[in-house]
Design a protein that fits this description.
The complex is a heterotetramer, with 2 copies of chain A (444 residues) and 2 copies of chain B (497 residues). Chain A has 444 residues and is α/β, with parallel strands linked by helices. Chain A is built from 12 helices and 15 strands. In chain A, helix 5 packs parallel to helix 10 and helix 10 crosses helix 12. The longest helix of chain A is centred in the C-terminal third of the chain and has 38 residues. The chains are: A alpha/beta (444), B alpha/beta (497). Chains in contact: A-B, A-C, A-D, B-C, B-D, C-D. The structure holds pyridoxal-5'-phosphate (PLP) (2 copies).
Chain lengths: 444, 497, 497, 444
């Protein structure tokens, strides 16, 4: 086994040096009746070339060469080439959580930089070192709102990503929460009218751009929440929108819980991605996840350390603000390198191009007979198209043309069976958009 | 001072300030095609009120060169597995094979959208399916989900499933029992599932005290969470009786599988009688720790618990193709978006297929050998609070060195000067001044011997020159940082002030 | 001591012995499929006498982990462009773009056999053809070959072509003229082509002395080899007259294009009147130096010399496809196997297309700006033997510091403590104690300012504490190595003794 | 331009700091008449995504997916995955020639390790840090033999790789050398009979395995050369053969000049590869190329330095042993990592598999009607097949079946128009060999 340095002979002499002669003796601690006396049944080892062909054959069964307009929580954006060689430096990807700061300053500094940029993008005061993904970040936000308000009711926008919603349900089910869903109107956004908010309400959870791509009026929601002494939790699955839209913090959000995949992280069939979590200074001690802070040594040299860890499971145990330990460190680095490379201007330019390309596509599609936009609302790079026939059937026909049309919303929402959620990013050229539009015409 | 130190020396490295301190208006690091569609008026279609007005104030402006140098310089301050022994107990810091990185980057995996129709994602579904098959064989349990993003989430899922089953039986119960030696995520996960946590003391050997367990175990207890081998590196040889005691009272046994590197191919947890467990792919199965993550914490369960697994499930259809199944009426629900940390799953499957049956067993045997080799050659020098054979790791204490006022922290910091990353110190809590050492199978004898020499030499220094240790490390870019001050007035972001 | 040093500090690094000192019998690092064909008897079909009997004695036996750690540790002792300013004059150490590395690794390039039929290698032939087109436009000359493996081979090819043409005219002639400031490869290359070398002194400005040239130039001279800008970073403003003087006597002008980073997009050598030149793709066009190579030294020539280009040539056929042409009766012949350093050509084309017309010019302008910025801010501190504007590099001397007994070597070694790689010292030979500095366009102002501060601070140290400099560097893993002893009894391989 | 750190404003202020206001002023050194007043005509810059598609499109026109039996100086072998990430560490690939040892120990140590392993493989005393490739290495060897013997005549085996031969001709043409070619017999190897060696002969140049794959009797040639006071220069294009065959040094070779491509270096359409050069201790001061040697600092710490550089152009100028400066450093590292990873056992195993697979293929092919082996000689992994019809036509028909048959020898040698040079390495599975054999049957 090429990953085991010591040769059989070396292992034998190590055994001898501790007074044993058979490796089995080391396992006498395990009662014989509990031992496995046959092979696992996984098979013989695969050599490197065999392994490569095995995985290449599997990969070939994933048709990533189709032109795709899928979004809905996972977005296709240009990924600068510099990211992979940098995150592939073994000093980064083969290191553990930076428990020993003197030997981990590289990791600690980039986390501090990551936290800073997430604050800048979200308009909030403090961000953590990442959570698993956008969906669990929202769940953690709800639990945090509960800790802060000691209230048990949450109002969740019906336009929150359905999978995020399901995760919140899973996490709150056992804690005696009352979860109520808020409908959406003809603009695909919340109707601020009768939210049914009350003194029992811990938080309102809104996603913007929401699952339908529509931009919510966050300031309005913040006012409503705060009037009732509740918190506003804002989520976004498409972090690129932060390059263009007023920041959640600026709109009055108390907690931001989102997904950073758009920042240089490959689609990779849904993960690993990078959960974002940010809030106000006053709430920092109720935050989940790791935090890195500035520190100095006895000679006054600046460095960084893991801090405020009394919130965490390894110290506070069952009273911890979360049970998270391993997070998405390397993918926070990806996002950090992405944001550093794109920079202020790059993020603005990409956001701008997403907006213009999506609006160009939307206007072209809405000119087609039988197609129109489901919602009148304002959107960023994603929108819902009403289709002349069942959306699923449209997709089937598009796929024959090697186009992955969009997400058919039947299944997600009753009465949306004839709706297609279409996403257009900077990676779609005008030519490919036009091709998509005429394909839609043909398949109708 | 560093005369005794064979393994390491010092060399010039670059200083590097924060990205923001480098930033300069007008620097460009990105390159994308020009916009090729007619523009739409932002004001009209979005409106001033919803548009950003701060010009992304504070975000950096850098060239590609600035970025490459920045992160390359930062990296030179990190210790990593490729640097040398990384003996963090309970973390299984083993070599991360490069072939796994290569495989995970194949276009067909890296560029696949999670909502791509199953018809054009069969290869990805096969990966998930094949990995779950392998983990079933390794644990001996009935079914596996690879959804959980890390060990802690695996614990949450496992306990949620127990709660769901108990609820179906009419009473979710109130408590979860946890040994005093358990990892912090265990109680934290139980709490998230709405349980109170009760601690069960260990016996003099560091194992679960059966009598104590019997005393605590009653009809209010939903589950007992046990790590095996436990966090002292000991195999819980009474695991069968433990399971009986718990089962008798209608409770379930959750096994924390973080230490499976001691068991793969040698024993199957199913045969212990446990009900549910998680695995840490980023430990036992060598997926990179990435400076904090990502990981994956698949959960394996008995047939009884199978209906409660989170959705979606990947199922084989009669025609042999794979489908995504959401129709799981009893499921605890969804625990994260899409299909878990897929990229981590690819790497773990690559690791498992590379080893095959003989390789997996060989890895386990060697990991246990290496741990016992260290235990044997250091136990004259360092106190071993719970003596005797160990499995994959050994826990020392600073008891003897403490006589000179030298604590585990000082020993750890001094190890840095000797060219090592320090062991785990934060737990198990039952050991005062713990030094929890896990070498893994991917260490050479030279490296282990250098560690033994370093530890012995540090013990001598503790007697001769305790101050030297209390101010260690002496060879790093920054010395000991004042963590107390950092926590008192936390500075958690750059503000330019 | 290091108080003044802002840019660098020291940090712990690993020691690492030689591969062979790690080797241990029975360690395995490779993994290939088992043999799947029936075996043939070696003794019978090859015979004992021709078979190896030493069991590859001395070759290492290591695991993959040993190998990864070995080279990772070694790498941590190297300074590189990604570390910081690498101001080696004449070497054009500019940033190596990552996109070029990615492009060169695309399967269709990396796995293509050089003898694959042209029909299935059109993409590769296009690369060579497109690059030669780009280099024609950049030099303004009539034709380009990308065969030569490096600058020195380019020189050989260029001089051979001149010799072939002269021979065709009846007399290959005897001599090649070279300025006293020339790089060592120039005379060495001329010699390989069978020419005697005669040195032409430079004038007080460091330029070619026209009178001296006229004196040396006669019917025995085949060529004058000139670097422009020359190795002092000066543009040979009389280049046209120089060419006339040489041409008048029936000789040819070879331009060493190593310094083209000062001219691309600003001036085309063809307009200078030169006949043949080489380019260093690993300098001007950013292909990685790789710790010594590989490079590529394409040669550009006038129409008159075109028939003498080495074969093979890539030619466009009427149907638009590309073919490999060996039918070159006047060619100097083949200068290396296959198609030159193809992988380097791919990277250079990627660099050129990334920049386009405006980018190439911008790079040149910025490179010249950076050099003049350094020259301006350091010329009060360091002697500039040939004052005045420079192009892409500037040559200082240690004249002033030498008063304190501090030489260019000491200044260079001390720069290492300051976090820099030292400048070129070995040439031009006409400058005593030369410090030849070339920043390139890919350096930031911060980095240049840090270099200026370091050089000034070292000048102060030279006066205050010369010994400090004579024993520098003080912060590296090893100090100054005894090169004299090393050359007296050379140990050029490990023998285990 | 993202590779230029300083923004236009920063450049302007730098200009100001040196007393200028327009960048053009810096170029006043260049007479106006020599300046370019128009764009180069290469076109606008390509963005990273555009560039990637440009090169992907070109790469797609190289059909590397065909099954190939090409060798003839470039060999397809398994390349361990660890090589690329290691040589891609920027500390290696973005460093220059190790002029400053204190900042270049990483490079210097691996070159010393490379030199050592090349000595071990070739059975010679000293090896250099690499030359351009196998062909130029042979040319350098001939020039060195001339310097050592002061003789002007070289006898070159007609079975030396034709391209190597051409390069030697190019390099010797202007130096008044007499180059004579030695024929080969029915075994495809040299006929030791009438070589015509005399007191004017500087060296005999032999390749083994030779261009036809046949193994030469090097000891015999060494004896003949040495009797006449000439040197024996041995070349090999297939370095993997050193894992199985008696080493050139052991056979009495004075100089080894070969190609290391087989040691983990991608085919890459013929380059960059890595020229190998080794000789006897007594000849070291006439060697071309860089040498790294052991050295110690004042505290007795071991390190490595470039040494014996008085042989080289930057010091000896026109009297240098060669004009080489930049060599193939990074590719010497590739070979070093390859040899370290494969190790003693791996190199032996690969060599063994090459031998067995090639002999299996040869025996299967020679069973086919109309096909037989041209030469009776002993071979390693390459052999010449006589084809029933013109070899070029066979290749054409094989290509239709997506098989690249081998090198047609017409063009290389008259009277070999019906010969195919076939190479079979460890990368050809039995299945693919069998497929090749039946394809040969079909196309005949
Ligand atoms: C014993 C034990 N259990 C659980 C965990 C938590 O696993 P994770 O960090 O993957 O959430 C760890 C990891 O540190 C552990 O060591
Ligand atoms: C001026 C000059 N000419 C020629 C050369 C030789 O080029 P190469 O090293 O590519 O052979 C160099 C490189 O050092 C150089 O600086």
């Amino acid at each position: 086994m090429r990953y085991i340095p010591n040769s059989p002979d070396e292992r034998q002499s190590m055994l001898a040096s501790i007074g044993l002669d058979r490796i089995q003796q080391l396992f006498e601690q395990i009662p014989a009746s509990l031992k496995l006396n046959e092979p696992l049944g996984i098979g013989p080892p695969m050599s490197e070339p065999e392994l490569l062909s095995h995985f290449r054959a599997l990969a070939a069964r994933n048709h990533v060469d189709c032109q795709s307009f899928l979004g809905a929580g996972a977005y296709s954006h240009f990924i600068p080439t510099v990211i992979d060689p940098l995150i592939s430096r073994s000093e980064f990807f083969t290191a553990y959580t930076p428990y020993q700061p003197e030997q981990s300053q590289g990791t600690l500094q980039y986390i501090f930089e990551f936290q800073t940029m997430i604050c800048q993008l979200t308009g909030l005061d403090v961000a953590n070192a990442s959570l698993y993904d956008g969906s669990t970040a929202v769940a953690e936000a709800v639990l945090m709102a509960h800790r802060l308000t000691r209230r048990n009711k949450v109002l969740i926008a019906g336009s929150l990503h359905p999978q995020y919603r399901e995760v919140v349900e899973t996490y709150t089910r056992n804690l005696g929460f009352e979860v109520r869903y808020l409908g959406f109107g003809s603009h695909g956004t919340l109707e601020p009218g009768a939210l049914g908010i009350d003194k029992e309400t811990a938080a309102i959870v809104v996603q913007s751009p929401n699952f339908f791509g529509c931009i919510e009026d966050l300031s309005r929601m913040a006012a409503i929440a705060h009037d009732a002494g509740a918190l506003l939790i804002v989520s976004t699955a498409e972090a690129m929108s932060l390059g263009l839209l007023r920041s959640p913090g600026d709109c009055g959000a108390d907690i931001f819980a989102g997904e950073a995949q758009s920042f240089g992280i490959p689609l990779s069939f849904g993960g690993p991605y990078c959960g974002l979590f940010a809030t106000r200074d006053k709430y920092v001690r109720q935050m989940p996840g790791r935090l890195v802070g500035e520190a100095f040594d006895s000679e006054g040299r600046r460095g960084y350390v893991l801090t405020l860890s009394t919130r965490e499971q390894h110290i506070r145990r069952e009273k911890a603000t979360s049970n998270i330990c391993t997070n998405q460190g390397l993918f926070a680095l990806m996002a950090t390198v992405y944001l550093a490379t794109m920079g202020k201007r790059g993020v603005q330019e990409v956001a701008r191009q997403n907006f213009h390309k999506a609006h160009y596509a939307a206007s072209q599609i809405s000119k087609l007979d039988g197609y129109d936009l489901k919602f009148g609302g304002r959107f960023f790079n994603e929108f819902v198209v009403r289709t002349p026939i069942a959306a699923a059937e449209i997709n089937r026909r598009l796929l024959e043309r090697r186009i992955v049309g969009g997400v058919s919303l039947e299944g997600y929402h009753e009465d949306l069976h004839d709706c297609l959620l279409v996403c257009v990013t900077e990676t779609s050229s005008k030519a490919s958009i036009d091709k998509f539009v005429s394909a839609l015409r043909e398949v109708a | 001072m560093t005369s005794k130190i064979k393994k390491a020396t010092t060399h010039v490295v670059q200083n590097e300030s924060l990205l923001f301190e480098h930033s300069s208006g007008g620097r460009i690091g990105y390159s994308i095609p020009d916009l090729d569609v007619p523009e739409t008026s932002l004001e009209e279609s979005i409106g001033r009120d919803l548009l950003r007005t701060d010009d992304l104030d504070g975000m950096p402006e850098l060239s590609e060169v600035d970025v490459v140098r920045h992160f390359t310089r930062l990296s030179s301050w990190n210790y990593c597995i490729d640097t040398g022994l990384y003996p963090l107990g309970s973390c299984t810091m083993k070599y991360n094979p490069r072939i796994n990185e290569r495989v995970a980057r194949i276009d067909g995996f890296a560029n696949l959208h999670p909502l791509a129709p199953a018809a054009i994602a069969q290869g990805a579904l096969e990966i998930v399916y094949q990995l779950e098959e392998c983990l079933r064989k390794i644990t001996g349990l009935h079914a596996v989900t690879t959804e959980p993003a890390a060990g802690a989430q695996g614990e949450t899922v496992g306990i949620m499933m127990i709660r769901a089953l108990l609820s179906e039986r009419g009473n979710p119960r109130k408590k979860v029992l946890i040994p005093d030696s358990a990892h912090g995520t265990n109680p934290a996960s139980a709490a998230i599932c709405g349980y109170m946590v009760e601690t069960v003391p260990s016996d003099s050997e560091g194992l679960t005290d059966l009598n104590q367990l019997a005393v605590h175990m009653d009809e209010d207890v939903a589950a007992f969470m046990l790590t095996n081998p436990n966090t002292l590196g000991k195999f819980e040889r009474n695991i069968r009786q433990i399971c009986e005691i718990v089962h008798e009272k209608g409770g379930f046994v959750y096994m924390d599988g973080a230490n499976m590197n001691a068991l793969v191919g040698v024993a199957r947890p199913a045969s212990f009688g446990i009900d549910v467990m998680h695995l840490n792919l980023h430990k036992t199965f060598s997926t990179p720790h990435g400076g904090g993550g990502p990981g994956a914490g698949p959960v394996a369960v008995t047939a009884e618990l199978e209906p409660f697994l989170p959705f979606p499930r990947i199922v084989r259809k009669p025609d042999g193709s794979l489908a995504v199944d959401f129709d799981r009426p009893k499921s605890v629900g969804r625990v994260r978006a899409f299909f878990g940390n897929f990229g981590v799953l690819v790497r773990a499957l690559s690791y498992i297929l590379t080893h095959g049956d003989p390789g997996l067993r060989e890895a386990t045997e060697t990991a246990v050998l290496n741990a016992n080799y260290l235990a044997h050659h250091l136990n004259d020098t360092y106190e071993v609070p719970y003596p005797g054979r160990v499995m994959h790791e050994v826990v020392f204490s600073d008891k003897r060195q403490a006589r000179h006022g030298v604590r585990n922290l000082d020993i750890s910091k001094r190890l840095i000067d000797y060219g090592f990353y320090p062991p785990t110190m934060s737990f198990p809590l039952i050991v005062n001044g713990a030094l929890m050492v896990e070498p893994t199978e991917t260490e050479s004898r030279e490296e282990l011997d250098l560690f033994i020499d370093a530890m012995k030499s540090i013990d001598e220094e503790a007697a001769e020159d305790p101050e030297l240790l209390k101010h260690a490390p002496h060879t790093t870019k920054v010395g000991r940082l004042d963590e107390v001050a950092a926590a008192r007035k936390p500075v958690l972001r750059w503000t330019g002030k």
